[in-house]
Here is the input.
Amino acid sequence: MKKNIFLIACLLFAVSFAKAAKVDTVETYSDAMHKKIKAIVITPADYEQGKQFPVVYLLHGAGGNYKQFYDLNHAIADWADHYHLMIVCADGGVTSWYWDSPVDPNFKYETYVSKELVGYIDKNYKTIKNKTGRAISGLSMGGQGAFYLAIRHQDIFGAVGSMSGGVDIRPFPNNWDMAKRLGSYDQNPDIWEKTTVTNLLYLIKPNSLAITFDCGTDDFFYRVNCILHDKMVERNIPHDFTSRPGAHTSDYWANSVLYHLMFFNNYFKKNAPKA
Here is the structure.
């Protein structure tokens, strides 16, 4: 009897393992920057069944790389399974801020993520190849990057999120290599003003983006996130904003990313092609 129970347990384990999401590291190439760049691609267990899948792009923070989100919370692979979607963890060059730098031609990460990486994923995977099948989010630098890219490329992304995002860069002119990417604030104030997310809200077209963002109350970016929320309310831009206890920490982001995946899943379901 014990032997039979053991065999059944092994069989159940094997079945559950066989149905697990697949986590791959791929190597892409950027024509804009003339170099190879890695990304993590997570495909759900039912990927081989022939349907097209929506994709969530996740952008890491300053000092991180393409592995940051998966290292923070391996459970994102389980949620890719649960929601039947793909997750792509992009690389942002440590401190690119996901801009095409006007002062350093070696940093063209806006072009890379919004065009080259999306193009690679659409070419090599069974994806929904329009904005209703794409969402983008990120943490800290990546939260700023997600907003920046989604607002500037509303034809590419249909939903956007930010976790503890640096959504107004102007209070931090000497931090995280931003001056290396944009030039110093005192010498290039126009560039900084045109780049910060809180000044880009006028570009958001009605009903063009599904928006969610959050920040911990003990985070040094908390105030700029609250200001962004107020500005969106003032402009009648629909969005979800969550303020919860927490700081600029891995524990906060490991929890937050699961809420973003739920938000994006609801967006994808709402906009799924009619059968």
Q: What stands out?
A: The radius of gyration is 19 Å. The longest strand covers residues 22-30. The chain has nine helices and eight strands. Confidence is low (pLDDT under 50) at residues 1-18.
